[in-house]
Amino acid sequence: MDANMQGRGPLVWAVVGSDIGPLLLAATAEGLVTVAFHATDAVRDRTLDRLGSRLGAEPVHAPDSPLLTEAIRQLSAYFSGERQVFELPLDWSLSSGFNRQVLRELASGVPYGSVVGYGDLADRVGSPGAAQAVGIAMGSNPLPVVVPCHRVVESDGGIGGFGGGLETKRRLLALEGVLPQPLF
């Protein structure tokens, strides 16, 4: 299916370096659609194949695309400690229903330098007792870092899980001053 038939236009991508390793960024005309950790060639290719199939578009490598330049700039500023809030158009088409509701609440309601428990986030979206479902929503987050699933932790003080790996989660929380800086 042609991407224009879905109204999203092109699907552009780039791999950018960061303090947590290479990140794959992809965007449509609607906004940033995915951020993927550990963007080795294999991860990049697998992610782009899946994205192209789901969005009905052929991914195009375009690191200078206006659809990506602001996301790249803001992520760079975040990792250098100069930005705490992302102000980017986001394409939410890869999430729906409860997951989208939870991710939107996370993006707007859990500020830089703070954390929230899985159960507390479930309460915020009107689903008390759905902590496990919130964990599943975090695991399906197509926009980590920008939609800060690293800020969701266990109620007992544990760090919880993380799709990018626990070391990546620790680094992001340390960057935001929530945890002591890890020793590497």
TrEMBL record:
An example molecular function term from Gene Ontology annotations: methyltransferase activity
Function: Involved in the cellular defense against the biological effects of O6-methylguanine (O6-MeG) and O4-methylthymine (O4-MeT) in DNA. Repairs the methylated nucleobase in DNA by stoichiometrically transferring the methyl group to a cysteine residue in the enzyme. This is a suicide reaction: the enzyme is irreversibly inactivated.
Source organism: Streptomyces alfalfae
ATP-binding listed as a keyword: no
Positions of the Methylguanine DNA methyltransferase ribonuclease-like domain: 12-91
Active site: 149 (nucleophile)
Names of the cofactor(s): Zn(2+)
Keyword set includes Metal-binding: yes
EC number per UniProt: 2.1.1.63
Domain Methylated-DNA-[protein]-cysteine S-methyltransferase DNA binding: 98-178
Recorded catalytic activity of this chain's protein: a 4-O-methyl-thymidine in DNA + L-cysteinyl-[protein] = a thymidine in DNA + S-methyl-L-cysteinyl-[protein]; a 6-O-methyl-2'-deoxyguanosine in DNA + L-cysteinyl-[protein] = S-methyl-L-cysteinyl-[protein] + a 2'-deoxyguanosine in DNA
Protein's GO biological process: methylation
Protein name (database record): Methylated-DNA--protein-cysteine methyltransferase
NCBIfam families xrefs: ogt
Note from the entry: This enzyme catalyzes only one turnover and therefore is not strictly catalytic. According to one definition, an enzyme is a biocatalyst that acts repeatedly and over many reaction cycles.
Keywords of this entry: Cytoplasm, DNA damage, DNA repair, DNA-binding, Metal-binding, Methyltransferase, Phosphoprotein, Transferase, Zinc
Family: Belongs to the MGMT family.
